[in-house]
Amino acid sequence: MPIDDISPWLHEHRYPASDLRAERRTWQVVAITAVMMVVEIAAGRIYGSMALLADGWHMGTHVAALGITAGAYWLARRYADDERFAWGTYKIEVLGGFSSALVLGMVGLEMVVESVERLWTPHEVHYNEALVVTVIGLAVNVACALLLGDGHSHDHGHAHGADEKKCAAGDHEHGHDMNLRAAYVHVLADAFTSILAIVALVGGKFFGWARLDPLMGLVGAGVIAVWAVGLVRQAGRALVDREMDHPLTDAIRKTLEADGETRVTDLHIWRVGRGHFSAAVAVVSQVPHTADEYRARLACHKELVHLTIEVVQA
């Protein structure tokens, strides 16, 4: 007879993703950065300062990147219940972090080009105006970093309770918010370049070291490039489901094979949320247990929010 009510066996595909508090704080940082951008561009035109204009348009790239971060949060939240997304909307956030990291890399490349140009052809620098703007910019970036840092939350993928002892040892990771991390790195990069700029401007103003400014620009670009590459790798790994080297893979295999009879013949894991995974496993045994019994063995791995098990008798 057909089953009338299948609700006890239905699976929800809405996994922890969008962080509303992080989204709100990111929008606040976008607003603050946008206001600073407009002020710098307006002041640059009023006072005829290229330094102010350049910094203002540079700030615009960060507004765009932070806007991508905030927009990704909004889209992930808006489509969280859309069944067309087979594994939820978490990867919208990851894609936002990846895109933001690419923008950060372009900012670093722009800094390299401009710094090299200024090494060969030094430009006139209005030190007093530039110092005032840089100090204000640094203060704004520090405030934004504190705002984003305070909202930086983690989903903990730890297993708890007595069942944890039955599991093979695994790395129960903290679920980092890659989207928020990208925004945070943008703000830190801007603060870091502001510090380097202050050093260069002080050196140029009081000691006549005109070429210190482009040299500091190259140093800043190098650091930004390292940060951007790290973000691209982390987000890209999640986007293409390169998770089979994650410690959870070996932990699942060891847990299921702990009875000495069962062998795992196929195993796939992929990330569906911050610190949350889905897995598809095939096992073979001469005296196999039921799928529910194998599932119970893995219950201590709280980071496994969706599990499919195929059991084959040898």
Computed CA radius of gyration, to the nearest angstrom:
25 Å
Question: CATH superfamily name of the largest domain?
Answer: Cation efflux protein transmembrane domain
Tell me the CATH topology of the largest domain: Alpha-lytic protease prodomain-like
| Number of distinct beta strands | 5
| Broad CATH class of the largest domain | Mainly Alpha
Ends apart, CA distance between termini: 31 Å
Number of helices: 8
Shape: elongated
Q: What's the overall average pLDDT, rounded? A: 82
Largest sheet: 3 strands, mixed
Number of domains: 2
Structural class: mainly alpha
Known CATH architecture of the largest domain: Up-down Bundle
Spell the H/E element sequence.
Answer: HHHHEEHHHEEHE
**Major sheet strand order:** 3-4-5
Strand and helix map with partners:
Layout: H1 20-47, H2 50-78, H3 90-120, H4 127-150, E1 155-156, E2 174-175, H5 178-207, H6 212-239, H7 247-256, E3 263-273, E4 276-285, H8 291-297, E5 304-313
Parallel strand pairs: 4-5
Antiparallel strand pairs: 1-2, 3-4
What does this structure look like?
This protein has 314 residues and is mainly alpha-helical. It folds into two domains: 16-239, Alpha-lytic protease prodomain-like (Up-down Bundle); 247-313, Cation efflux protein, cytoplasmic domain (Alpha-Beta Plaits, 2-Layer Sandwich), CATH 3.30.70. It is 60% helix and 11% strand. The chain contains eight helices and five strands. The chain has helices at 20-47, 50-78, 90-120, 127-150, 178-207, 212-239, 247-256, 291-297, and strands at 155-156, 174-175, 263-273, 276-285, 304-313. The strands form two sheets. It has a three-stranded mixed beta sheet, covered by helices on one side. A two-stranded antiparallel ribbon has the order 1-2. A hairpin with a 2-residue loop joins strand 3 (263-273) and strand 4 (276-285). Helix 2 packs antiparallel against helix 3 and helix 2 packs antiparallel against helix 5. The longest helix is centred in the middle third of the chain and has 31 residues, at 90-120. It is elongated and about 80 Å long.
